[in-house]
Amino acid sequence: MTENNHVAVFDFGSQYTQLIVRRVRELGFFAKLYEPEDIVNIGQPGAIILSGGPKSTSDVDAPDIDFEKLKSYGVPVLGVCYGMQLLNIKFGGAVKSSNRREYGPAALKPSSNDGLYEGISHESQVWMSHSDTVSDLPADAQVLAANKEGTPVSLQWGDRFFGIQFHPEVTHSHEGLRILHNFLLQANELAEFRIEDFKREMLDGIREKVGDKQVVCGVSGGVDSTVLAVLLKEAGVNVRAIFVDHGLMRLDEGDEVRNNFHRMGVEIETVDCADLFLGKLAGVADPEEKRKIIGGLFIDVFWDTVGNAELLAQGTLYPDVIESASNAKSKASKIKTHHNRVDRILELQAQGKVLEPLAELFKDEVRELGTSLGIPADILNRHPFPGPGLAVRCPGDITEKKLRIIRECDHIFITRLKDHGWYDKVWQAYAGLIPVKTVGVKGDERSYEWAISLRAVISEDAMTADWVELPPALLRETSNRILNEVDGINRVLYDISTKPPASIEWE
Ligand SMILES: Nc1ncnc2c1ncn2[C@@H]1O[C@H](COP(=O)(O)OP(=O)(O)OP(=O)(O)O)[C@@H](O)[C@H]1O
């Protein structure tokens, strides 16, 4: 994708940096994320944003940026939080360290109603997350906005350097998107972000790279691999799509996946290996152990089926690329190894045999691409489903009986959500087993059976999540049906935990 006049976002380590890129794209402009040391290698940007970060500018290892180079691009620059403090120092001002952290909503009072604050309320809620604050301001700095106490929280230096202490990219900053847009309007020219242009470039890129070779891709039924497979088909290349059924799928899921691909005119091969997976998992109760077994077997089965792939296509998305890069950099904080970065794939990558056409897109953009490829909405709006499947919803050892119970309860819950018009309002929902027996009464007889937990959450990016206040009538109907129809369950619970501290899935 051309980089002329794009928005270059520099990452100083804030947990919100990816969101800045997403928001700029939502506003219709092309944005990319860079490490500060990449500043010499970004083509000609149209505007630059410096993100927030966890460090203090006074730390010995505080991240820095080549200021002369930054100025040399001659384009508007916005410093967010740490980015603003860094700019203030570069312009000759100072930053005061503090141990007191300001975290949460705050009132912003713009001093005028133009430029960055055009159309913004005279008191606007913004989201703060910082300890240090700018103290001495350089002579030519202008205060654009202050907080309720009168402390400067937005500055301008010269005519094209801006700073904001708050985070415009999070939704808790009610007019944050508008402020970001106002900043982008300061640029002379910006590259637009249009999914149709992306699609054209992706299709050309795929045809050029693939030629008449055969491409193999794994399809899970999830959004990313589905869009990828349809994109490859649209490019007219020779593609082999493989679905591995590990026996940990939901009720009739294999049929549903095959049927969905059939509807889209894409042929898929199923590898049925439920016995292999369930055999190796028998008696294993430790969550990490279970994940390792599933991950390892999955790769083995997939590679055995693939044979000597000429080209392997993966539905790697932009957040995976960013996370892998930052994992590689900060070796200490490796969160997880993506299974699209295992050794065999890295080998193929070194030989130029890996195709990752979606690697510049975020999830919602992949959905938009899917729509433009004609993929039906019900497929694109499927809730995320974890790679290890029902294993992560089945604490303790996995048995056929437990899987049957989870499948039946999950099916009842999901169909109730659909019937009541709630499925599309929820990010993810499922039934998970609580393998603890409690006493109940069924048909005048004592029962001593397990409990099932229902979970429904909303989330923007799966990093945080909140439970959904489902209507009592829906919950009651689901509970009644489960208790009447599912053998082995005498208690239904609704999970009201947020993430953090809980996770979305159980294991
Ligand atoms: N059961 C499966 N059969 C074949 N390939 C799979 C299967 N599960 C996962 N994959 C492959 O591994 C990739 C990563 O799987 P993961 O579970 O992390 O899902 P994902 O990245 O959210 O993608 P998707 O939305 O396509 O499921 C998928 O995009 C797909 O190519």
TrEMBL record:
UniProt xrefs under SUPFAM superfamilies: Adenine nucleotide alpha hydrolases-like (SSF52402), Class I glutamine amidotransferase-like (SSF52317), GMP synthetase C-terminal dimerisation domain (SSF54810)
Any single GO CC term annotated in Swiss-Prot or TrEMBL for this entry: cytosol
Pathway stated in the Swiss-Prot or TrEMBL entry: Purine metabolism; GMP biosynthesis; GMP from XMP (L-Gln route): step 1/1
Signal peptide start and end residues: none
All residue ranges annotated as the GMPS ATP-PPase domain in the record: 193-382
Binding residues for ATP: S220, G221, G222, V223, D224, S225, T226
Claim: Nucleotide-binding is one of the keywords in the record: yes
GO molecular function (one): GMP synthase activity
Enzyme class: ligase
Keywords linked to the UniProt accession: ATP-binding, Glutamine amidotransferase, GMP biosynthesis, Ligase, Nucleotide-binding, Purine biosynthesis
InterPro entries linked: Class_I_gatase-like, GATASE, GMP_synth_C, GMP_synth_GATase, GMPS_ATP_PPase_dom, Rossmann-like_a/b/a_fold
UniProt-listed Enzyme Commission number(s): 6.3.5.2
Function: Catalyzes the synthesis of GMP from XMP.
Protein known as: GMP synthase (glutamine-hydrolyzing)
